[in-house]
Design a protein that fits this description.
- The chain has helices at residues 40-48, 68-75, 99-112, 123-155, 168-175, 182-213, 219-225, 233-243, 252-258, 283-293, 304-310, 315-337, 342-371, and strands at residues 7-13, 17-24, 31-37, 56-61, 79-83, 117-118, 263-268, 271-277.
- It folds into 3 domains: 2-118, MutS, connector domain (Nucleotidyltransferase, domain 5); 123-213; 219-371, no CATH class.
- The protein is globular.
- Helix 4 (123-155) packs across helix 8 (233-243) and helix 12 (315-337) packs antiparallel against helix 13 (342-371).
- The strands form 2 sheets. The protein has a 6-stranded mixed sheet. It has a two-stranded antiparallel sheet with strand order 7-8.
- It is α/β, with parallel strands linked by helices.
Amino acid sequence: MKDAITSYVGLDVHTNSICIAEAPAGQEVPHFIGTVSAHIGPLLKSLRNLGSPNAIQVVYEAGPNGYALARELRAHGYQCDVIAPNKLVRMPGDRIKTDRRDAIALARLARSGALVKVPVPDDRDEAIRDLCRAREDAVRGRQKARQQLKALLLRHGHRYSGKTSWTAAHERYLSGLTLPHPAQYIAFTEYRQAVAEGNERVARLTDALRIQVDGWRLKPLVTAIMTLRGIDFVAAVTLCSEVIDFARFAHPKSLMNFLGLVPSEYSTGDHRRQGPITRTGNGHARRILIEAAWNYRFTPRISRSLQLRQEGQPKVVRDISWSAQQRLSKRYVKMTARKVNPNKICVAIARELTGFVWSIARQVTMQSAKEHA
């Protein structure tokens, strides 16, 4: 297919404009074509002057504009790829960055085959991902409202002595509070209302997520990943919606690298230095795994909730889940004995947990292939 390409087009996409550059197949120097408005009509008009759609390869960087442009171009017959911006090759001495130069660089790198493509999810996969991120935003907003309420009470000397906040007992405690000035009580009531609205919003989005996942093509993978300790329904759906295709990672280390859980390193000659994790790639999935890693500080056991999640799953999946508990709990104890910082321990556990997630995804993929054979 690449031999049939006669023109490589780089797009520098912005909210209101698209810069277009072309690198003809061969050794010709890439050149800038022009800038059009960020609508499919003017872009298609410019691309028609370069040849037929099946002879043009179009690329643009992944960013806030999403995948809508790629889907529209593909619907019109163009080969369009979305490129990982953090994988672009840049010369150390290149200190000039303009839209024109970026478009030309994309076209040139596309012709040389030096770009790393980002998988474009289908509409249903992206819809589930958007719903997961909406719930994540709702949880973050609720947490902010809770912090604001607690800050108000702390300023006036009210400290809750119970074991856990935001329970029924804590709500009864809040209901019995009095503040000296009416204006303060109004502020207190508004903060409480914001927290209540946050709870309702999170509950609505969680229920909607359960409904939308029912019938999703990745639901078998969601239920299989839920067999792991510390990964409930929301966590499993988030992982699946963010990664989508685990099969594109030939080795679990590739998935760890995609999630930014591998340590950074600067080594030269006999000197070797490792730093903190890279934090590149998908931060949503990385957060889920690090939160789940805290559960492995406990002794391996099958709790009632975990037992319910494992019911109906194949023995090979349940065995992987139990192996994860045994290995990761043992590793947590060993690292604690070495007095490693708890946060570093959890990151290390999350990195190894990624390997078990990859292994379960591989088993689900193999089982699905057998059923469709």
